[in-house]
Amino acid sequence: MPALNGFAPTSSHAKDPPMTQRIEARFEKCRAEGRAALVTYIMAGDPDPETSLAILRSLPKAGADIVEFGLPFTDPMADGPAIQAAGLRALKVGQDTVKTLDLIRRFRAEDQDTPVILMGYFNPIFVYGVDRFLADAKEAGVDGLIVVDLPPEEDDELCLPALKAGLAFIRLATPTTDDKRLPAVLANTAGFVYYVSITGITGAATPDFGKVATAVERIKRHTPLPVVVGFGVKNGAHAAAVAEGADGVVVGSALIDALKATLDDQDRATVGSVEAVTKLVKELSEGVRSVAKRAAA
Amino acid sequence: MSAQAQPNSFRTGPDERGHFGQFGGRFVAETLMPNILELEKAYEEARNDPAFHADMEYFSKHYIGRPSPLYFAERMTEHLGGAKIYFKREELNHTGAHKVNNVLGQILLARRMGKKRIIAETGAGQHGVATATLCARFGLECVVYMGAVDVERQKPNVFRMNMLGAKVVPVQSGTKTLKDAMNEALRDWVTNVADTFYCIGTVAGPHPYPAMVRDFQCVIGEETRAQMMEAEGRLPDSLVACIGGGSNAIGLFHPFLDDKGVEIYGVEAAGHGLSNLHAASLSGGRPGVLHGNRTYLLMNRDGQIADAHSISAGLDYPGIGPEHAWLHEMGRVNYISATDDEALEAFQLCARLEGILPALEPSHALAKVMELAPKKPKDHLMVVNISGRGDKDLFQIAEHLGSKIA
């Protein structure tokens, strides 16, 4: 069975399916404010479930427009040391997929508008059971999924079932995704496109921000979806530089590093843990908001 | 084993998307997909190019020392009192194990593709040594990722790789063994996609690796077929090989999969026992997705990968090649397991009866030969793959047997 058969690309239609409503509304709001969106990533259960929920809840107030919540996995083969360690800290205190969905449910009870993206690797989802996972994630208030080890060649596994279940499957595009391959990568993606600005793992090299705008333009020639850019963004100045050329800026490892710096010698949260993250998010938010973009055409 | 319909042939897989039944596939980050597609295309071209095969044959004969002998283990046969036992002597290959068969193929392919930098993961160090060796021979840069725990228990091989000019990177993440070395190699590849060739050491990883590595290892079974015909005038009755990822086993088994009369036994590492810490993915695991393919994995209820344990660093992996997972579900191969203690006992028996020090990996296969052979008639021909030599394991074996090597 061909991988990309049977489903029309959901992205290129004027009337998007309901699943992307929160995501779409949020990008609409940012466009109206004439700025790029700030997308933040933290790991569920790091360093413990309650602290990670407290951080998640503080993010929108600090200026995050979309929140990504990491699903811990023992073998995150595309992640750098910061996110690897965060996942292991979470697993050590017993975080799992059921508990992660519970945290999202509690977040959603207080915040109806901020899009929540669950990001991780396929094995925990596969083991949970794809159909059951999609139903539970939808019910918990998840809007979209980013699953690093599912390229379009494996769309039958989760991407197509997710679209059917009303969850956006957000795809990563990379510098190695050439123009010939882009249409396949974008075909079943929804919500937004996540451009990985470097060939490498998370939290490693800082990209050449000058090239980001050109890369985003290339992707936009193939899709009407917003294009956000991540990997290597560490501070407000980086965020501003990326915001120049992209519809959104993703920050992950830097937030995890900020959290890590506050943990005690047994990796437990301290009084300053939540605030250390929100402080950096405020700086990033100011960076993003310092770049005026033309309001939506 | 299962109710699945039996195929006309067990040798036609994988399909064009890299699937053996439900197993295999290409579960990798987008950054790597273009590379994997490029590799697939380059391998297809090489496979159909007589010049590539001529190079393979030349270096197999003159550099590796193939064909490896099929040796009648007369004293072990007498001792066990049943089946007539033959050893396929892969431990006599240059670098001391079957690993070099695959590495030769991949390095010749990397040269065709113009890749100048080679990375590899290694567990026991045999694949790392083979990769470092071929890189030295062809003047290529070589970086080997090895779990910090394995660096400690396989010191002679680390030194060997250094002497051959390779850089050995001890991996400190996760459980610091083979699976983490593979994670780290994949991270390197994601970072250095343009100039780097990832030389995977076993029949796992994303398509086309499981099929490609198998093809390079099939020389073991093809030679065995011809050598057995020459020695006995007929095919063997049974085959036995150890399995970590499963490359030496698939190399021996694959050419015989459609010979229905040939019984096939794959021996996983049962470590301290199957109810304890072990590395037997088929006996103690279930289907999941790791390192680019769907296969049987050791994991917890949440899909978190479990720590594997085996006395043998080469079998200490929580997964298994996807083709083995499929052959297991189809019931074509019998997958059994041997414990650390059984392997140590078999190692000592083989040393004393045959004057051959097998590696701890094939000692697991020998342990099951000790169980299977006595139950077979004297005209039953049993082949066991001695996939590597035991020199690298001597320090560790000495420790287990309570003696000290200075």
Automatic annotation (TrEMBL), chain B:
GO terms for cellular component: cytoplasm. The gene is trpB. The modification N6-(pyridoxal phosphate)lysine is found at K99. This is Tryptophan synthase beta chain. The beta subunit is responsible for the synthesis of L-tryptophan from indole and L-serine. It comes from the Bacteria. CDD domains: Trp-synth_B. The keyword Amino-acid biosynthesis applies. Belongs to the TrpB family. The lineage of its organism: Bacteria, Pseudomonadati, Pseudomonadota, Alphaproteobacteria, Hyphomicrobiales. Residues 65-388 form the Tryptophan synthase beta chain-like PALP domain. Signal peptide: none annotated. Keywords: Amino-acid biosynthesis, Aromatic amino acid biosynthesis, Lyase, Pyridoxal phosphate, Tryptophan biosynthesis.
